[in-house]
Automatic annotation (TrEMBL):
<protein>
    <submittedName>
        <fullName>Oxygen tolerance</fullName>
    </submittedName>
</protein>
<keyword id="KW-0732">Signal</keyword>
<keyword id="KW-0812">Transmembrane</keyword>
<keyword id="KW-0472">Membrane</keyword>
<feature type="transmembrane region" description="Helical">
    <location>
        <begin position="452"/>
        <end position="470"/>
    </location>
</feature>
<feature type="signal peptide">
    <location>
        <begin position="1"/>
        <end position="21"/>
    </location>
</feature>
<dbReference type="Pfam" id="PF13584">
    <property type="entry name" value="BatD"/>
</dbReference>
<feature type="region of interest" description="Disordered">
    <location>
        <begin position="401"/>
        <end position="422"/>
    </location>
</feature>
<keyword id="KW-1133">Transmembrane helix</keyword>
<dbReference type="InterPro" id="IPR025738">
    <property type="entry name" value="BatD"/>
</dbReference>
């Protein structure tokens, strides 16, 4: 009998040991619904781990549009004494190009260690044809949505301004719920300046002779820096649309179907002409536009060792930031400092306009007359298709008083020198005062005063305060549960504030709002992220005697945060959800 008990104990020991060993092994895998699909089919990707983890990071899903996700699911079970746990993140994807597409690994942190899933390669073929299937919302929207890049001039000269306007045309039969830039052009071989669109204004328009609505999304001013045929990279957008279906609601209004569509403006080509060589002046430095040219001085009469400012200025309309101002040529006997460059330029729909200048500081050392010679400034005007040259007027600087230069001394050396009496100008000699206005200093000392003893006793009075604060800090450090609650409270306030700042940006707003709600639950109900489920939250809130309307409001907010990842939400809906979150949290605080 004892032998059988020993054998039973040994078997039980190894069974538990094996179960613990099996339970301690961490797995993080990826599963896809199919490895080959058509361009119009959908793909389900699921990342699964057998341990609870944090900081899950999905791959970028290049080559796919994310239609839904991430959807989180948690499963716990016991099988023959072995605990089983499963945490999964699911995505619904649709390819946006054909060929072989690789889904990169996802990452998650478990027990302080980083784990990666495997990479998966998907083969995408032509769209699958189903002649019996009705047209989808995407098919309907595709014919009524067009992104166009309109160019003011297709054959500009080198450094001549052109404007590109990106306009979205929408058919009256569909509604746009939102859009997001996917690919922004880089404008290689162009100097570019964005003109911000402060407000999107929709107006009635025509596209290829049909009635449409249009809205300007982006404006940019370009100055080509290279001649020949240049390509403008396309702007691509992901647009959320609502397409009316054949179904009607209770009040007879049409029911709309949601769809996400990618549109592109396509490549555009610019033929840049070289500036003519015939008639090009030697003073031309690359200025293209319509300009004025000035050379001015702050004064023309001064004494030696005094300073003046000479300014070389170009004003007008053109490529003001893309050429050099002519250099001022001054006599060598003048001390000249490096010029200070100033710009006052505004860029509008038609290009750059304003003025640029170089300011020279000049200090003459000797008396005499110093001419500032005329200088030339040349520019090419695309309107007249000719070069123009502007010349500055000659200016003479008169230095009235000061020492004589070496040249003047050499000229007067041959003459008989004459003795002159010393002449004084101004107050060159001052008397030294023999009597001062001194006052006696204060003879009261700090030592042995009342303030001296107060400052001496202050460190002793601070000792019990320091002991009290130290004990309180140690008590707070030992309160692990309280620290978690306080941290979760701070995070809830932080993310709720972040949600308010991102109103109007759907994804950032609902991510911050969801984090705020989760951290609020952590603080009030003392639960972890892995325990977040609607049933669990409802059960705990009922135990706390929270009324049903407050519970339903809280759960609806969590549902909206999840739905917002793949559904269009308006700014009004976001503002309502934010106000509702503050109201629900306030009501729950009172009841708790």
């Amino acid at each position: 009998m004892k032998t059988k008990l020993y054998i039973l104990y040994i078997l039980t020991f190894f069974t538990v040991l094996g179960a613990n060993a099996q339970d301690s092994e961490v797995t993080f895998s990826v599963k896809i619904s199919k490895e080959k699909l058509g361009l119009n089919e959908r793909l389900k990707v699921e990342f699964t781990t057998n341990k609870d983890g944090d900081n899950f990071t999905a791959p970028d899903f290049n080559g796919f549009n994310v239609l839904m996700g991430p959807s989180t699911a948690i499963s716990r079970s016991w099988n023959n004494g072995v605990r089983k746990f499963s945490l999964s993140y699911s995505y619904i994807l649709q390819p946006n190009k054909k060929g072989s597409i690789t889904i990169n690994p996802a990452t998650i942190t478990i027990g302080g260690q980083l784990y990666k899933s495997d990479a998966k390669t998907i083969t995408v073929t032509e769209a699958v044809v189903n002649p019996n299937a009705p047209p989808s919302a995407s098919d309907i929207a595709k014919d009524g949505l067009h992104l166009v890049a309109e160019i003011t001039k297709g054959d500009p000269y080198l450094n001549e301004a052109i404007t590109v306007i990106y306009k979205l045309y929408v058919s009256p039969s569909i509604e746009v719920s939102g859009f997001q830039a996917v690919d922004n052009p880089k404008y290689n071989n162009f100097w570019s300046q964005d003109i911000p669109v402060k407000r999107y204004v929709t107006k009635d328009d025509k596209y290829k002779g049909e009635e449409y609505r249009s809205v300007i999304l982006k404006r940019v001013v370009l100055y080509p820096q290279k001649t020949g045929k240049l390509v403008l990279e396309p702007l691509s957008l992901d647009v959320g649309v609502q397409v009316p279906t054949q179904r009607r609601d209770f009040f007879g209004g049409p029911i709309y179907a949601q769809a996400n569509l990618r549109v592109s403006a396509g490549n555009r080509y610019i033929n840049v002409k070289a500036l003519p060589e015939e008639g090009k002046p030697a003073s031309f430095t690359g200025a293209v536009g319509d300009f004025n040219f000035f050379v001015t001085t702050s004064k023309t009469h001064l004494n030696a060792a005094e300073s003046l400012q000479a300014k070389v200025e170009v004003t007008g309309k053109g490529n003001l930031k893309l050429f050099d101002i002519p250099t001022l040529n001054l006599p060598g006997s003048l001390e000249v400092y490096d010029p200070e460059h100033n710009e006052k330029i505004s860029t509008s729909y038609s290009g750059m306009e304003g003025k640029i200048s170089d300011s020279y500081t000049i200090v003459p050392q000797y008396r005499g007359k110093y001419p500032i010679p005329t200088i030339a400034f040349s520019y090419f005007n695309p309107a007249t298709k000719k070069y123009h040259t502007l010349n500055s007027a000659e200016t003479v600087i008169n230095v009235l008083e000061g020492p004589t230069s070496n040249e003047e001394k050499a000229d007067t050396a041959s003459n008989t020198p004459t003795k002159k009496s010393v002449e004084t100008k101004g107050k060159q000699f001052n008397f030294i005062k023999t009597e001062g206005n001194l006052k006696p200093i204060d003879t009261s000392y700090f030592f042995n005063s009342t303030n001296y003893y107060l400052w001496l006793l202050l460190p002793i009075l601070l000792i019990p305060i320091a002991i009290f604060l130290g004990r309180k800090r140690d008590a707070i450090a030992k309160d692990v549960v309280g620290n978690k609650i306080r941290k979760a409270n701070r995070l809830a306030r932080k993310y709720l504030s972040a949600a308010k700042k991102t109103l109007g940006k759907k994804e950032a707003f609902y991510v911050a709002l969801e984090k705020a709600l989760h951290n609020y639950l952590k603080a009030k109900l003392k639960i972890e992220t892995s325990e977040f489920s609607k049933d669990k939250i409802t059960e705990l809130l009922n135990e706390k005697e929270i009324d049903n309307s407050t519970i339903e409001g809280f759960l609806s907010l969590l549902k909206n945060c999840e739905m917002a990842r793949y559904s269009p939400f308006s700014n009004v809906q976001m503002k309502q959800d934010y106000d509702k979150a503050g109201e629900v949290i306030s009501q729950m605080d009172k009841q708790l």
